[in-house]
Amino acid sequence: MESPELTFTLAYIVFSLCFVFTPNEFRSAGLTVQNVFSSWLGSEDLGFIQYHVKRSSITLLIHSALPLGYYMGMCFAAPEKQLGYIHQVSDGWRVFLLLSLCLQLVSWTLIIYWSRYHWHNHPISRALQAHVQPPYSSWGSVATSINTEFRRIDKFATGAPGARVIITDSWVLKVCSNLLPTIPVHFINKQERRVFPYVHNEKVTTYHVHMALQNDCHVTVTDSRQHELTPDSASPIQLLTLRVESINPAVRPFDIRLISTDYAELREKLHAPIRTSANVVIHQTISDLFLDTFRAQVDLNPPYTLPEGQEVEPCIGCMQVPAGTKLVRLCHAEGADNVLECQQCFCRPMWCLSCLGRWFASRQDQQRPETWLSSRVPCPTCRAKFCILDICVVH
User: Fold this and answer.
1) What are the tens digits of pLDDT across the range 175-234?
2) How far apart are CA 339 and CA 185, in angstroms?
3) Residue 188 pairs with which residues in a beta bridge?
4) Which phi-psi region, left, alpha or beta, contains residue 27 (left: φ > 0; alpha: ψ -120 to 50)?
5) What's the pTM?
6) Whole-angstrom Cα distance, residue 159 to residue 266?
7) CA neighbours closer than 13 Å in the CB half-sphere of residue 295
8) Are the C-beta atoms of 351 and 345 separated by less than 8 Å?
9) Who has the most CB within 10 Å: 70, 79, 170, 271?
10) How many CA atoms lie within 13 A of 65 on its CB side?
11) Helix, strand, or coil (residue 239)
């Protein structure tokens, strides 16, 4: 029969590894630093920089306390060792306790050093200081800019929970909330369109937030890898590695990773130039390829001029951009009994071109993409049938 000492040791090692590397099971159960200390950390949406300064600091303290926690646990798991009496324990345990206490002391000393002058010495604050240039007068104003843009709903966010990629109007951010050495792909969350987790070789630190100003950086697609999923999904996924480099010498380059289906959305949000290495091929989905062709075909149609006094409202599909399309019956193709197949739509402009294109693609036979451009679908609002020739861009 296994001894309580060995059982506790194995259990504590497994718990420590899971707490540090945070698998999905621990994350779902709420056993993360963010969840356990949520009341002290506050809201990430209200103060992005302040939240991650606190998160990285408490994470350092918790990680450094794991060896000491093991010693204290062994006091109860193996009472016969009398580990609570320092003068009676063996030299090996005494050295282990001393090293554990020293590690905890060093961590507290480092946290105190970071917190001086309102966390001026924290690694995140130092990263902010690299961007102190007009129009930013101090690293505090840089933090305010990031906090403000992070609160906006139109930011782009993707990536695994432990290594998120966030792109705002002015910033490219990479947030590492747990240590991730090399973890295999095992499933994809189709609702959130993210891979949990994914393979990478970069050393990720949980005590830092990578950031680069869009106006100062350029992005290069350096690598792409194809990964097969579990039998639950028949299609593979492609993971792209993008290198973010800034002309600011104080900003260190860093890599961001995302699945290829998010690449088109990233390009729309990212104003910095994107280059692709010669040996990298990006595989878009059929829907993404169709959207590119869909936009090109619609651009060939005559534009629609708004009546005087009518204003363009936000797209009801995404609520992020103005409604830029109007359905006007331009196609005169006749079907059976000489009845026009396309119908007149009397709706005002309510959809942007991207949302209307996604609606158009969603109504098609997914097994016959060659028929998509010639098909007719109902208007998403009034159900009047239209084809691609009836879509006009609002001018």
Assistant:
1) 876 654 433 333 333 333 333 333 343 444 677 889 999 989 999 999 888 765 544 444
2) 53
3) 195
4) alpha
5) 0.66
6) 12
7) 11
8) no
9) 70
10) 11
11) strand
